[in-house]
UniProtKB/TrEMBL annotation:
Domain called EngC GTPase: residue spans: 102-246
Annotated Zn(2+) binding sites: C271, C276, H278, C284
Subcellular location: Cytoplasm
Domain CP-type G: 94-248
Record carries keyword Kinase: no
UniProt keywords, alphabetically: Cytoplasm, GTP-binding, Hydrolase, Metal-binding, Nucleotide-binding, Ribosome biogenesis, RNA-binding, rRNA-binding, Zinc
Species for this entry: Yinghuangia aomiensis
Protein name (Swiss-Prot/TrEMBL): Small ribosomal subunit biogenesis GTPase RsgA
UniProt family annotation: Belongs to the TRAFAC class YlqF/YawG GTPase family. RsgA subfamily.
Cofactor or coenzyme needed: Zn(2+)
Record's subunit section: Monomer. Associates with 30S ribosomal subunit, binds 16S rRNA.
Amino acid sequence: MSAGPAALVALGWDADRDAEFAPYADRGLAVGRVSRVDRSLCEIVTADGTVRAAHGTGGLPCTGDWAVLTADGTAVEALLTRRTAVTRSSASARSEGQVLAANVDLVLVVVGLDVEPDLGRIERLLTVAWDSGAQPAVVLTKADTVDDADDVRADVETSAPGADVLVVSAVDGVGLDVLAALASGRTVALIGTSGAGKSTLAAALTGADLETGAVRQDGKGRHTTTWRELVPLPGGGVLVDTPGLRGVGLYDVEDGLDLAFADIEEYAADCRFADCTHVAEPGCAVLDAVETGALPERRLESYRKLRREAEWIASRTDQRLRAERARQWKVIHKEMRRNPSPKK
Ligand SMILES: Nc1nc2c(ncn2[C@@H]2O[C@H](COP(=O)(O)OP(=O)(O)OP(=O)(O)O)[C@@H](O)[C@H]2O)c(=O)[nH]1
Ligand SMILES: [Mg+2]
Ligand SMILES: [Zn+2]
């Protein structure tokens, strides 16, 4: 007798999932959480253990998805609704989003204090984090390598309105209790550049021995985490480690920008013109805030840069959709020429 999906509560299963799954349960199908995705197979943690299954036809599974298995258990029959998704524009020329982690509750933007923090990069990652629909937080790690961690934190806080900024160290354990409490019972994704300390933090939080830069000896550089993995947290919840993101392209992040730059949006509400671009308009409350020092000019520039990039990607996506539509119409017209009065 199967344990049933109720056994998956520690992995994030809840009443709404149960309701959505009911029709599949009636058909005797099993469900589980995708813990890892390879080119053609994915690993799914079910109540009866971990299985490997083909991707199936119900959309490409991603780490964190809830996947319903086919009756024979060899493929994914369907994915339950993705509540949140950490997405970036894919590396390929096709303007599509690549989902890094699905159904995440908390996105931790991990930043190593051993290098000078790049506020623009943190703002970019926070934009992606906010856009996922999950709650973001910034984790400044490797606190053991500096003695001005709290000054850095104060700096970063002005770049992270609405998000907690924590200072931790995996080496001496500083701040790990606070972070563990924040993460407990939730699905937590770690994002950040390579070498930031994500896998080390994941290991410290889960007790699992994940691959980190320190153990890698084959000289292939610092890009150590090559797949995303779902690891249970001791007190319930799961953690998703992601590979270092060299460049995080923004994908359809309008909402993320509004949230990551909520302070600017707030000033903008007082601009004289509703369509103010905050460049040179009279009565611009955003420029006034820069003038008085309330808003760092760097931050306004970062906002403009990310917005331009987001708009460019959106236009590229539209172009692709338009081209796709034009191609479809060509096919339809060809059909019509070949068969001028299609039979009903
Ligand atoms: N001093 C110190 N070093 C740390 C800490 N956390 C991580 N490191 C070191 O930083 C390096 C990179 O850590 P990783 O955890 O592999 O970084 P990552 O973000 O997972 O990197 P990718 O998997 O390449 O994206 C390793 O040499 C770690 O030992 C810390 O809290 N303090
Ligand atoms: Mg790693
Ligand atoms: Zn303005």
